[in-house]
Here is the input.
Amino acid sequence: MTYKVSGVPLISADEIHKRVAALAEELRAYPCDLYVGVLTGAFVFVADLVRAVGTDPEIAFVKSSSYRNGCVSCGTVTFSGLEKLNVKGRRVLLIDDILDTGHTLKELSAHISVMGAASVRSCVLLDKPARREVAFEADYKGFTIENLFVVGYGLDVAGEHRALSDIRTVTEER
Ligand code: IMP
Ligand code: MG
Here is the structure.
C-alpha cells in the first residue's frame, strides 16, 4: 500500500499555532501537576502546548500501540511506561494527537484513575467524532475534523510524515 499526502493542508501551521495558544489559555485556568503525552503521535503537540501554557508541570510519556502499520485500529490498546508514573494525589492531564475510536484515552484515563490520581483530564489536538466506538470526550480539544486520515504535526501513516508542520489528509493508492 502506498499513501498520497494532500498538496494543501487541511489545517495550516498558523491555525494550529493560534489554536494551541487558545488551548493554553484554557489550561491555565485549571493547572495540572503532571502532563502525560501518548507516544509517538503527541510529541509535537506536547512540546508546543507545554511551552504555550507556561506553567512548569512534570512531563512524562507513555507509549501506546493500537495502530500498528497503517490506518487500521486493533481495538485494544497496550501501554508501556505506565508503571513509571507517579500519579498518586496529582492532577493529571493526558495529551494525545487525536481522539479517534476513543479506546486509547478511555483506557488510559481509567488506568490513571485506578492508580490514584486526584483528577484526570484530557486534551487532544484533533477529534474525529464520526469514528468513536466507545463513549469518551476530551476535556480540551483543538479541532474537530471529518472522518479523514491525517498526518503531520506528530501524526503518521506507517511511521511517515510526522515532521510536517501542518495537518494534511492521506489517501491510499494501490
Ligand atoms: P483511538 O484509540 O482510536 O482514539 O486512537 C487514537 C490513536 O490512533 C491516536 O493516538 C493516533 O496515534 C491514531 N490515529 C487515529 N486517527 C489517526 C489519523 O487520522 N492519523 C494518524 N493517526 C491516527
Ligand atoms: Mg497516538
